[in-house]
TrEMBL record:
Its main location: membrane. It is found in: Membrane. Pathway: Porphyrin-containing compound metabolism. This is Cytochrome oxidase assembly domain protein. It holds the Pfam family COX15-CtaA. GO terms for cellular component: membrane. It is a multi-pass membrane protein.
Amino acid sequence: MQFSSMVFQNPFLEGFQERMNSNSDISSKFRLFYKISLFLSVLIFFNLLYGPLVRATGSGLACPDWPFCFGKIFPTFDFQIFMEVSHRYYSGFLGLILLGLTVWTFTDQILRKEFGIYLGLAIFLLISQINLGRLTVTLKLDPTSVNLHLLNAIAFFLVILTVSIDSREKALYQKKFYQIGFFIQKR
């Protein structure tokens, strides 16, 4: 009797091959989740650099109102208005990616179990970030609101980076588990 037939006739290991196949799907899911969360982490990092650049160029109050700029979605642009509005639009784009990732997470049982708390926290931090951005504009760059806006952005970045790192580890673990099972099956 071959080793592989002994393994798969064992009542404790029934369905092992099916679990191996589903682990391959789980590994693929974690890999895709990792790629999207890593992409989001990189985009957030660039926004962390872009925000202070807006402030350094004196563009922080180029749009005196919020959420629009001079009451318009697309105002007449000069350099400072472009810097401020592009920071807002870029941040909105990041929010849409996070929203998509969160919807995917909460509609998938495995992802919800692994990352639901992190992405719930990320949504909370995003809402806080939006409100702090509003306060930064309406309080005319008050140092407290500016610093809280930056600190919250760093916390937001770290949460998404943690999700990215954790999903990579889970993808590698699932792949390794699948490969071990595949090796046992082939023997």
